[in-house]
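job 3f2a | input accepted
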Amino acid sequence: MSTLSKQKIGGILAKQGILIAFLAFMVAFTIANPKFLTPDNILSVVRSSAILGVMALGVTFVVISGNLDLSVGSMMSFSTIVVLDLHDKIGPVMAILAMFAMTLALGAVIGFLVGYLKLNSLIVTLGMLSAIHGLTLTYSGGKNMDIADKEGTWFSVFGQGTALGLPVPILIFVALAAILGLVLSKTSFGRKVYAVGGNGTAATFSGIRRARTVFLCYIISAGCVATAGLIQASRSLGSQNTVGQGLELEVLAAVILGGASLLGGSGTIFKTVIGVLILGFIQNGLLLVGLQFYVQFVVTWVIIILAVWLDIAAKRGKLWSRIA
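job 3f2a | predicted structure (324 res):
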């Protein structure tokens, strides 16, 4: 095989390697278990992926802006516990509003530290992961939360309801993806997010308020986390205080799988949705072929490494390079 042909193949694998691998997984899982591609299983996968997907939509803004958010898992636990606790105390409507306000406040703190104080996003959000987890345990007193009257509340509609023949969590995911997709691709704010992530210094000299843009990205991320917490709380009407623990890595894996670069400046909401579905179907396939659920953690790690490698390879146009 000629050098040119090898370069072309390497370029294709670098740009479309994840999709090729996903198709290979789909074929293998279908052969191993014919139930894998049945309508019921597909609907189940999309529904179970809705919470992760909603969180990934917000993190997409953060990653495109050239930053990270590792606090979303702990933040989701916090929002879930808060809305469940306040449901019986002040009613579902006020509980939802209060939960969103408190979660957005946490996002504002992170956005201020990263955007205006220009602290490293990895360090800040890693610290907030621990801090918010401690806040959740303090708020709940180390206890899990449940709604007292589970049969007499309309609150369950967000996680258990159906509309237009589809589960409400899927509709929320699709609607939010459509709205944020338009914001990112069709508004001046979306263009600013790409500019800040692509070249922050150039964006600043172009008159873009870099700190404000980063701040708003974290606000959007927090809003998505609050929405995910609402769905999670509504689904079971009760929750452990660690329900979101570890989700930050799955969210990041889904965003990277969708093609968003960790270096910033690239990615789309549509591709993030694809990344979420890829991760969801792979995890579902592993369970259907009889592997234990904890194998998913190893697979998620492998997927993250593969996605980062392909991201770097796509930028240099080939899979291998002797020069770092």
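job 3f2a | The longest helix spans residues 3-32.
job 3f2a | closed
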